[in-house]
Amino acid sequence: TYIEKIVVEGFKSYGKDRLEIPLGKGFVAVVGPNGAGKSNIGDAISFALGIATTKNLRAKNLSYLIFSRNGERAEHAYVEIHLKNDGSFPVEEEDIIISRRVLRDGRSIFKINGVNVREKDLKKFLAKAHIYEDGYNVVMQGTITQLTGMSPLGRRRIVEDIA
Amino acid sequence: TYIEKIVVEGFKSYGKDRLEIPLGKGFVAVVGPNGAGKSNIGDAISFALGIATTKNLRAKNLSYLIFSRNGERAEHAYVEIHLKNDGSFPVEEEDIIISRRVLRDGRSIFKINGVNVREKDLKKFLAKAHIYEDGYNVVMQGTITQLTGMSPLGRRRIVEDIA
Amino acid sequence: KLNAFMDAFNNINKNLKRIYAFLSPGGKAEMELENEHDPFAGGINLRVKPRGKDVKYLESMSGGEKTITALALIFAIQEYKPSPFYYFDEVDAHLDEANARKVGELIRSKSRDTQFIVVTLKEVLASYADKLIGVTARGGVSKVFTVNNLSEIILEEAKSA
Amino acid sequence: KLNAFMDAFNNINKNLKRIYAFLSPGGKAEMELENEHDPFAGGINLRVKPRGKDVKYLESMSGGEKTITALALIFAIQEYKPSPFYYFDEVDAHLDEANARKVGELIRSKSRDTQFIVVTLKEVLASYADKLIGVTARGGVSKVFTVNNLSEIILEEAKSA
Ligand SMILES: Nc1ncnc2c1ncn2[C@@H]1O[C@H](COP(=O)(O)OP(=O)(O)OP(=O)(O)O)[C@@H](O)[C@H]1O
Ligand SMILES: Nc1ncnc2c1ncn2[C@@H]1O[C@H](COP(=O)(O)OP(=O)(O)OP(=O)(O)O)[C@@H](O)[C@H]1O
Ligand SMILES: [Mg+2]
Ligand SMILES: [Mg+2]
């Protein structure tokens, strides 16, 4: 199971038009100059999979995620995560699309393969494939050196959650 | 005015013996592998000039600054900052040595050219050469990206302090 | 519940020891229960000893040493309970070239059955990847494309400078 | 008191505009008083606009953009009220090669009358220095020496790997 590609529309720096971000299995390196929009890919992933806080998305509130430039502003911020399912998800489909749309009023709409779901149901579904809010699989820029500073109790809670 | 060299003895990773760290005027780049002891140079500077807190020295308390390895431990942590004075300091001497010694019991002894001084007198003396506790001239590892996150009031206070 | 915890603890610990020894040759790292008789009455300590150095105060480690320790822990957890994908954003910011290579090697070996999406500014790390995704900003809008070799992106970086 | 403040504010602001434009070509940065009529009744806002982008929420900037902005501010202060020395520890951790070069160039031009002690893992930045100080750890003890050329330290790094 892996992320085949991400589709964005109006999300952060990716402009108003629909844009495909190819990923695919194995080791994918994301490269480019400062300010290009590399870390915004990680934001798109955490946003759509419901594993984000506005703080680690570097947004004051959800509407800050909507693309804007020189006064023009997108209608919404929309992200699709296209997953290839090789059995991690207990469903028939080989292709699973998780999507999230945030409207200008800040409301979020989550969908699994086009069907509206509540955020907590999405989280339950993703947990089946071992995608958790704190699975320590998403490491945002500048945070790796803070991990060793965790308290002993915090460390034990991590192991408890994994067990 | 610049730091000609630093002399350390028993300070952090520099061993028990007296060691000279050459610096000198202009643009000096400090290079070497991870864990070598590069950032400990910045710690030695802030320690001796009284512009440090144990937190930004990465020490639980001052005695953690005393070199230790495999059970052996230095008597003290001692740092000399050798400054070339080209007029920044309103004194005759061309060479100024600021030193600080921390004993195992945590007590600190500050000296200017061999004469004991109180920490606050050292700070007054250094301020004459525009060396301040928050002069924004010492940037520790991992802190540069936090500067833009300051509050507007904090930013105003910086300008006030400079004025 | 205790059994589930001890199973996780012991396995992750075993992984951590091996992975850290690979990333930091001659070094050791392991987890330790604060309270061996009642694990839930205490926390978990991390004892780290880079080659030739004392186990001491974790915060006194260098930026590179903290990064290597953190990655070793993440990989140790990954080997016990893998997620389908990992996203690492500039985890190599404080790594020297030798450590960046080790991390690249380790990610590559793990990427056979797990997806690793790694944002990096270091060519040495990108050189271990199966695939390169390039991102540039044109007039405030990000453009994303597949890169066939690193010289393409270096050209892009020079253009935007 | 107000005069001293406004003198500092206006000069640092003038420096910031110029320095930021050099580091981020086509970009603009400036400070703004929250309360123009009574500066001490409010704070100072920082308005930053990289080329082609909106002035917006400072926290949404990228790691490299935040670094460049912070350095521009530090240099702006330095030009108004210089300290005798500056110590920068891995301020280039999140900079791409083009930005690291600009910062190296700027430090070099300022180092004629000011000392800059710069810890870096990037050869591109070290290449602008007048002098190289090498540090390595042997058996848990740091060794410090003058380096005559970068290939020496690369050899040292390879030895400790
Ligand atoms: N809602 C938005 N509309 C338009 N642009 C946005 C929006 N939110 C963020 N951005 C822009 O995205 C850019 C940051 O992108 P990102 O953090 O992905 O860069 P990066 O490639 O990771 O760079 P670095 O290498 O410096 O970390 C910023 O310039 C910011 O202005
Ligand atoms: N009191 C002490 N006695 C012995 N060693 C110490 C002491 N305090 C710190 N150290 C050692 O100093 C080392 C850290 O040095 P430093 O932070 O200067 O490394 P660095 O060269 O900056 O590395 P990096 O490139 O990873 O940032 C650690 O390995 C730590 O164990
Ligand atoms: Mg980034
Ligand atoms: Mg360091």
Overview of this structure, please?
The complex is a heterotetramer, with 2 copies of chain A (163 residues) and 2 copies of chain C (161 residues). Chain A is α+β, with helices and mostly antiparallel strands. Chain A is built from 3 helices and 10 strands, in the order βββαββββββαβα. Chain A has a 6-stranded antiparallel beta sheet. In chain A, strands 4-5 form a two-stranded antiparallel sheet. In chain A, a hairpin with a 4-residue loop joins strand 7 and strand 8. The two termini of chain A are 22 Å apart. With 161 residues, chain C is α+β, with helices and mostly antiparallel strands. Chain C is 42% helix and 23% strand. Chain C has a two-stranded antiparallel sheet. In chain C, strands 3-4 form a two-stranded parallel ribbon. In chain C, strands 5-6 form a two-stranded antiparallel sheet. In chain C, helix 1 (2-23) crosses helix 2 (63-80). The radius of gyration of chain C is 19 Å and the shape is elongated. The model of chain C has no long low-confidence stretch (mean pLDDT 93). Chains in contact: A-C, A-D, B-C, B-D, C-D. The interface between C and D is medium-sized, with 25 and 24 residues. The structure holds adenosine-5'-triphosphate (2 copies) and magnesium ion (2 copies). The site of one magnesium ion (MG) has 3 residues of chain B, from loops. One adenosine-5'-triphosphate (ATP) sits between chains B (12-13, 32, 34-40, 64-69, 141) and C (50, 53, 56, 60-65, 94).
